[in-house]
Amino acid sequence: MLTDKLPVNFGYVYENLVAQMLVASGNKLFYHTWPKDEKHYCEVDFLLSRGTKLCPVEVKSSGYKAHASLDAFSAKYSSLYDASLVKKVRINSAKYS
To answer: For residue 1, what is the enclosing H or E element?
Structure first.
């Protein structure tokens, strides 16, 4: 792809790629948002069910290292997920240009 040649944020493309890979592996995908404050929302890209626990998946397509929504999910729903199952997927688009 020409990710460094076009003025486009390819995050949605990479999220779609990860979604397709997860579904092809037999996963059912869930998405979750919740209010952060009156004007903003937190979101987790994908939630996977693992028995009685959830596995949150956050996809990042840039060098951006923060994952505030994943941290907020972890704090808010700590009893619902197993920390060993938390997935952070980072795709370095510079490698594929």
So the answer is: none
β-strands 53-60, 41-50: how paired? antiparallel
Nearest residue to 15 (alpha-carbon basis) of 91, 94, 92, 97 = 91
The two most distant CA atoms of the chain are separated, in Å, by 44
CA atoms within 13 A of residue 75's CA, in its CB half-sphere: 9
Inter-CA distances, 7 with 24, 57, 93, Å: 30, 26, 13
Q: What pTM, to 2 d.p., does this model score?
A: 0.71
- pLDDT tens, residue by residue, 29-56: 998 888 988 898 888 889 888 888 888 8
Tell me how crowded residue 19 is: count the other CB atoms within 10 A of its CB: 17
pLDDT in tens, 6-37: 556 677 888 899 899 999 999 999 988 889 88
In angstroms, the CA 56 to CA 54 distance is 6
